[in-house]
Amino acid sequence: MAATSFGTNDPLAVKLWSKKLSVEALKQTWVSKFMGDSTDSIIQIKDETKKSAGDQITFGLRVQLTGTGIAGDGTLQGNEEALQTYSDSVVINQLRHSVRNGGRMTAQRVPFDLRNEALAGLRDWWAGRMDTCAFNQLCGNTVQTDTRFTGFNATVAPDSGHLLRVNSNEASAASISTTSTFTLTLLDQAVERARSMDPSVVSNTTTDGLQVGYPIRPCMINGSAYYVAVLHPAQITSLRALSSSAGNWFDIQSSALKGGEIEDNPIFTGALGMYNNCVLHGDYRIPLACDTTTAKTNARRAIFLGGQAAVCGFGRDNGPERFTWVEELFDYENQLGVAAGAIFGMVKTTFNSLDFGTIALETYAKPV
What we know:
Elements: H1 11-28, E1 35-36, E2 43-46, H2 48-51, E3 56-62, E4 85-91, E5 93-100, H3 104-109, H4 114-138, E6 163-165, H5 184-196, E7 206-207, E8 210-211, E9 219-221, E10 224-231, H6 233-240, H7 249-257, E11 273-275, E12 278-282, E13 288-291, E14 294-305, E15 310-314, E16 324-330, E17 335-348, E18 350-351, E19 354-355, E20 358-364
């Protein structure tokens, strides 16, 4: 029986293995379920650099109008309001990684296909790296300064209006105490803050007791509004310990299962549960709480998310569904090397020095 095979760097092989890599890598990521072209997506994909040359995408925000208007036959001319806009940008760059076998005798000694093993290794590596970039950006992990781990854009610490701690007297990550574990109250406060920010004045001050900033837009699913919160496993353990509190862990899990109309939506895939219309997820990549360049041991910075919390851009012939795949033979065709790469960039959205779609939640979280 004849068998179909593809030689090294055969054009069909390149397309085949590139597709395999992208599909399998995306299945392993947390970030893929929240990516989309819509402004309702938590991580919005910007495709300008997929269509043309360039290494930076600039995108804007129009602030809501705040004028009082003119009543009756009052003169409107001369009392118009100017549109107020702010901008942010995401830089893209190329990231590659590769594997190389030891030679034909190495391949002879093992019972598996080295090309498939290269695919598996690069798949896991890319999945982990994309998620790491996303969490470092969304959480504002300023301790990490190597942009290969932050989506090629510097991380930005959350501003004071977009950072909550259990004890409001704790003025820094360094001051987080052992009693300040994750609570449902912190989620309630995040939802309240997200909905009640006052956009009429954009600054780091307060007006009438409300935090000034942009209201965080929830994700709309079948007419219902949902936020997303991602916690570290140690913070999840703290929540599970609240079994005697209102809204215990069983209730949280049950609420995520109600209504079959939401079960197929990606943001519910793998969810731990739901509380106050906030879908809860967990991931070990949630970084330590930090003050600028200093991390706080046994404290974590969970993240509360709404629409357009981050933006991701890709280069030409790249995308979340398309990586590059290159195979090369070395040492007189005795060794096979495989490289996989992507041109991309990721950044948390900030406008006028204010976070747009995120609230950081810092708590004590000591691993068991």
